[in-house]
Amino acid sequence: MICFEKLPELDGAALAGGLADIEGTFCIVVSPDSSPERMRQCFLNGAADFISAPASETALKECLLRAAGNIRAMGAVTDYHAAAEEYFSELRKTMNDETLLASLETLIAENENNVLSTQSAAEYFGFNKDYFGRRFKAKAGMTFSEFYKRFRMVYAEKLLRSGRYRVNEISGMLGFATPDYFTSEFRKYSGRRPLEVKNQK
Q1: Residue 2 clears pLDDT 80, i.e. is over it
Q2: CA 56, CA 154: separation in Å to the nearest integer?
Q3: What share of the chain is helix, strand, coil (3-state, %, to 5)?
Q4: pLDDT digits (tens, 9 = 90+) for 52-102
Q5: Which pTM value belongs to this model?
Q6: What is the pLDDT of residue 76?
Q7: Residue 26, Cα to own-chain centre: how many angstroms?
Q8: Do you find a cis peptide bond into 8, omega within 30 degrees of 0?
Q9: Whether the predicted pLDDT of 133 surpasses 90
Q10: How many other C-beta atoms are found inside a 10 Å radius of the C-beta of residue 21?
Q11: Which of 59, 89, 159, 187 lies 20 to 30 Å from 108 when distance is taken between CA atoms?
Q12: Which residues in the chain belong to E strands, given as ranges?
């Protein structure tokens, strides 16, 4: 939402505060009062952006592009958590170690913006890589790399189905070296090419 503030009748800070609890809502305040205090007040109340009036077309476009990026990022966060929930629900059908599963859920939740490796997971759990690898395989029936790759494929499918991202963007988000490598791994996992899933109605 873009609020062209006209005080006192239309208070952008108050409007931003009222919208703050509505998920996925962004309020951009355009105000004739460009004082640092007014800007601060708007941001403290939850405004996503602030522009001094009169707003140029360029400034509005830049704000809208930033808002679009934030909305896409929020969608990715939602998809990430949905993928984790789905993946761990499936794992619970075959793995009986609830302590390990709970620890893995925490590891995944805390590393949303990181690409995990066996080494980083071993460090997280406080083990050396070789010991962790052997212990993980004995308990989970797969290597940590297999476990994590499967999770990334579930997440990739969520991102593809959302329709918000191109295949090369998803490849980068998931930490694959190239879109071709991502496509190859996704096809091994699902039996379909990413574009088939993305274009599926």
Answers
A1: yes
A2: 43
A3: 65, 5, 30
A4: 888 888 888 887 777 766 666 565 678 899 999 999 999 999 888 899 999
A5: 0.66
A6: 64
A7: 17
A8: yes
A9: yes
A10: 8
A11: 187
A12: 2-4, 28-31, 49-52
User: Which letter, b or e, does each residue of 40-70 get, where b requires 16 or more Cβ atoms within 10 Å of its Cβ?
Assistant: ebbeebbbbbbbbeeeeeeeeeebeeebeee
Closest of 26, 106, 112, 34 to residue 66, by C-alpha:
26
How far, in Å, CA of 126 to CA of 122, rounded?
Answer: 6
Q: Is the pLDDT of residue 16 over 90?
A: no
Q: Which domains does the chain have, with CATH numbers?
A: 2-55 (3.40.50.2300), 72-198 (1.10.10.60)
* Lookup: tokens for 56: 């140029």
In sequence order, the 6+-apart residues with CB closer than 8 A to the CB of 180 are: none
Strand order in 49-52's β-sheet? 2-4, 28-31, 49-52
Is residue 3 over pLDDT 90?
no
1: nearest Cα among 49, 33, 52, 43 = 49
What are the CA-CA distances from residue 184 to residues 161, 179, 190, 198 (Å)?
18, 9, 10, 15
| Length of the chain in terms of residues written | 201
